Amino acid sequence: MTDLATSKRTAAPRIGEDTPRPDGVPKVAGTFAFSSDLHHDRMLWGGTLRSPHPSARIRSVDISAAVAVTGVHAVLTNEDVPGSLTYGLEHRDQPVLAADVVRYEGEPVAIVAADNPEALRMAIDAIAVDYEPLDPLVDPDLAERADPIHPDGNLVRRINLIHGDQDVSGEVQVEGTYEVGMQDQAFLGPESGMAVPAEDGGIDLYVATQWLHSDRDQVADCLGLDPARVRLTLSGVGGAFGAREDLSLHVHLCMLALHTRRPVKMVYSREESFHGHVHRHPARMWFRHHADRDGTIVRVESRLVLDGGAYASSSGAVIANATCFAAGPYRVPSAHIDGAVVRTNNPPCGAMRGFGAVQTCYAHEAQMDRLADALGMDPVELRLHNALAPGDELLTGQTITGTAPVAEVIRTCADHPSGASMAVDPMELPGGAGRTADPEHVVRGEAFALGFKNLLFSEGFDDFSEASCHLADGVATITSACAEVGQGFVTLAQQITCEVLGVDDVVLLPASTDGIGSAGSTSASRQTWMSGGAIQEACGQVRVQLLERLAAEHGVDADDLVVADGRVVSMAGGLEIDLVEATAEPIEASVVFRHAPTLPLDENGQGDAHVSFAFSAHRAIVDVDVELGLVKVVELTTSQDVGRVLNPLQTIGQLEGGAAQGVGLAVMEEVLVEGGRIRNASFTDYLVPTALDMPPVEIAALIEQAEPGAPFGAKGIGEPPSISSTAAVAAAIRNATGLDLPRVPVRPTDIVFPEGAA
Amino acid sequence: MTIATSLEDACAALAAEPGSLVLAGGTDLMVEVNRGSRSVEDVVALNRIPELAGWHLTGDELRLGAGVTFAEICDPEIAALVPALAQAARTVGSPQIRNAATIGGNIATASPAGDSIPVLAALDAVLELRSAEASREVPVTEFITGVKATCLMPGELIEAVRVPVLDGPQEFCKVGPRNAMVISVASLALLVDRSARRIRVGLGSVSPMPLRATQAEDHVSGHLDWDNGVPPRLEVVREFAELVASSASPIDDHRGSAAYRRHAVRVLAQRSLTRVLNRVSSS
Predict the structure, then answer these.
(1) What residues of chain B lie within 8 A of the CB of A691, using their CB?
(2) What residues pair up with A622 in beta bridges, in sequence order?
């Protein structure tokens, strides 16, 4: 019995133990069911006709030829949208289907359902749209002066942050202009899902997404249905990184299914996917840093322009982050940050891992190196000298009340010994498999970068997560609508439940809008804290109920009872009850978890707008073939403020994966947009790092200081790795080449022709 | 769909439907099919034809069946005979792509960025073409007539590629903005042909058709000390690289600028010549 119990405990890991993902092996073996694998015997195939123009008036749409294609069941346009004609995360400014104008290349114009993909393709080709192409607005710097391309105007949001005494200036000043290209989330599983019409006139939508309830509300609105009749269930998600926070095919699928009374499945092609979701905002940034001779920063000035593309998406929150964290995790007593996000006819931009902090981190860290250079100071020392600490004020005037082990993050990362030797094999040098370099062609560079961002939703947003725990026959069943998109919630939900209840059997029900309230978005590094917190509380309440019931039954004090190893025992001895027996009569608790409230920013960008902050540092070592402009990132070392490690295995995975996306942005990842058109909508030409591009990630330290209010003190860890990594790699290339490199990704021509010869 | 199991079958199927798509590894074709830019009517699949598989050596000549995959070309036995071809094969896509993609397919696709093309051009490779009625031989440099254009007639397919086994070191280098699995922005094959006392140079991704840097070859071949292996003056190496660069006719596109491509082949020319000369002088 004891042996069995022991082995069961091993299978039900607690907080702090390595917990492998249940979906890990199936994903590697190809047996995991992604949303693109959904199948129904009676299903139709859905597809989308998209605008070939970044800006055009639609004179007419003629669907007659498409309807006549054999096997076609529905061809729907803007006129067929049953409810609200628009949707959106913050502002409902994006048409479900374009009406009289299209505002970006790839904007959906019509949708089709057909018996098979071939008929679908023929019907889509047969739709005749008469466009009057217009000159697209593609330069974000011109957007505010240009004619509005949308009734809501071309300025999505401006934050004019004014902090401290505006008349100070520093003895030493450094100035720079920086640019970040458009990064894509590059998830592997394209947008896909299936809608099944229900007998009650409602709809069941199976879809890969990040936030079921927000989707549900927007879909119901567009369908003109009561939200109760729109049920969303999470399907196998093949990565998200922010790109699934907005609706894509959701309303289209439901419209087609309701119209045909048949299940309809839709899967975007890779090319379509690049047009079908938001990207990371391209940024143009100017900075001036002021410091005293001893390196103390006295003031930071900055102007930020983010290109939001055609629709608002989450741009308003992205520019808030970019602005609030523009100066980095440093004490800055005086600041003026003018942050604007504008509308253009470029592809819409929205959420992506790091959410506004990635762009400014690249710029403020370049500025810090420039400042160190101007002062003749060691760049790490300069950062330590100005590092934020608990009790310090942010640019927003908010005082940090939680943990902020910035100095520890800096020191541990900077002091970590490097294991990087010089490669001899051309395969390991810049150019890799192309065998272009020999060791004598290579220059090594090293640099350090620090970054931070907020955790959870900010600016007064009512951010909550609901979860319930049902304990019966020793089995805890957890219900939460938290979207598992690869971040690892499935293991954490199990670990938290086991830890709190002392059970070994946990069932996590599929995430859906049915039977539970919103868990909020899987974004902003928030689910471990929010849905983890909800589960912790729900399980805690169940535990209390259980112990009180047993105490009453057995006439003992509830405080004397503990749950451990699948049994309830009294510390005083004499009582030992098997948990299965003790829970023959079920116990249930449901919780809505909220973090401490935040406030909106005032007209000067001041206010206690954020909940908590996480900090990370990266040190990058790169080899650069200066003559060919090719780069090999040799080593990345990182330290991160994590609050507490809940699942070490997964923590490492997040730090490695986030750094890989950061390396990608530093040296290769960019959606190339010319005249509003995407030039590289494929994984042939949108390059992400391979095993030869991504170095080992050395984890110097995981700084564990329990964060007040967070479950087990754990901070979200998903975003920081992608914030400081890009800045560190870019700085290391600067260090190797001596070039300014004011733009990422750093392209070969930026190194070979730094004056812009070609 | 014809899944041919012999060369005769395949030729007969192609004769019956001369407009058929020819499917080998499918790594180029399926991308176009999936994108919808190529409609699929009749397909003749070649991957089960034994005559197209395998390779053999006759004297100083290597004959590769058109169905030989890039994974097979990476094999040390082939690498020992045509090192540059093996090096080029290693730069093709991912392991999965190299397992499927064939040398015949790479030639027939006739992309300016085809990784095997500069090596085959430098080797003066000869293609054996076959149809139901006839067979003929065409040098690879004449076979490819433009960007993704060949002289392949309807009903005809590539049966094999013949290349000489040369005496001397070989180099293939390829530039792309990623360290693996990347489409060539510029590439160069440089082969030493001791018996002909000639350096052979083929360029990739810098012209619409396979390109030999003939002037550069003439220049450097004439300046090398073939008898004693005394390294040439640095000036000769530089002039050679300059001539290679000027022989290129690259274009600007989203993968790279013409100026960068020209610059890159200049650098590759200098480096690869230096590499082979180092090896000659050290041996």
Answers:
(1) 180
(2) A445, A633
Name residue A299's beta-bridge partners: A290
**CATH code of A107's domain:** 3.90.1170.50
**Domain span holding position B250:** 170-282
DSSP string, chain B: -EE-SSHHHHHHHHHHSTTPEEESS-TTHHHHHHHTSS--S-EEE-TT-GGGS-EEEETTEEEEETT-BHHHHTSHHHHHH-HHHHHHHHTSS-HHHHHH-BHHHHHHHT-TT-TTHHHHHHTT-EEEEE-SS-EEEEEHHHHEEETTEE-PPTT-EEEEEEEE--SS-EEEEEE-SSSSS---SEEEEEEEETTTTEEEEEEESSSSS-EE-HHHHHHHHHHS-TTT-PPPPHHHHHHHHHHHHHH-----BTTB-HHHHHHHHHHHHHHHHHHHHHHHHH-
Domain assignment of residue A421, given as a range: 283-458+601-752
Radius of gyration (Cα) for chain B, nearest Å?
19
Interchain contact, A434 vs B35, CB within 8 Å: no
Answer whether residue B141 is part of any domain.
no
Domain count, chain B: 1
The reply to whether A171 falls in a domain is no
pLDDT tens digits for range B164-215: 999 999 999 999 999 999 999 999 999 999 999 999 999 999 999 999 999 9
Q: Which CATH number fits the domain that encloses residue A716?
A: 3.30.365.10
pLDDT in tens, A395-442: 999 999 999 999 999 999 999 999 999 888 889 999 999 999 999 999
| Residue A628 and residue A732 in one domain | yes
pLDDT digits (tens, 9 = 90+) for A303-351: 999 999 999 999 999 999 999 999 999 999 999 999 999 999 999 999 9
Q: What is the pLDDT of residue A6?
A: 36
Complex ipTM, two decimals?
0.96
Out of A570, A594, A618, a domain closes at: A594
Percent of chain A with pLDDT over 70: 98
Whether the per-residue pLDDT at A12 is higher than 80: the answer is no
Residue A143 lies in a domain: no
Contacts of B79 (CB under 8 A, 6+ apart): B73, B86, B87
pLDDT tens per residue across span B115-162: 999 999 999 999 999 999 999 999 999 999 999 999 999 999 999 999
Distance of CA A732 to the CA centre of its chain: 25
- Same domain? For A685 and A553 the reply is no
Residues of A in contact with B36 (CB under 8 A): 121
DSSP bridge partners of A171? none
Tell me, yes or no, whether A514 and A635 share the same domain. Answer: no
User: Residue B258 maps to which CATH number?
Assistant: 3.30.390.50
Q: Are residues A195 and A73 in the same domain?
A: yes
How would residue B99 be classed by pLDDT, with cut points 50, 70 and 90? very high
Count of structural domains, chain A: 3
Question: Residue A4 has what pLDDT?
Answer: 36
Asked if residue A147 belongs to a domain, the reply is no
Nearest CA in chain A to B176: A431
Q: A527, A561, A594 — which closes off a domain?
A: A594
Is residue B251 included in any domain, yes or no? yes
**Strands laid side by side in the B126-130 sheet:** B55-58, B61-65, B157-164, B126-130, B135-139
Residues A294 and A270 occupy one common structural domain: no
Mutate to test the interface with B, among A269, A436, A626 (most CBs of B within 10 A): A436
Q: In what order do the strands lie in the sheet with A567-570?
A: A561-564, A567-570, A576-578
Nearest to A690 among B181, B254, B256 (CB): B181
**Count of residues in chain B:** 283
Residues A679 and A555 in one domain: no
Within 8 A of A436 by CB-CB distance, chain B residues are 173-175, 267-268, 271
Residues A713 and A674 placed together within one structural domain of the fold: yes
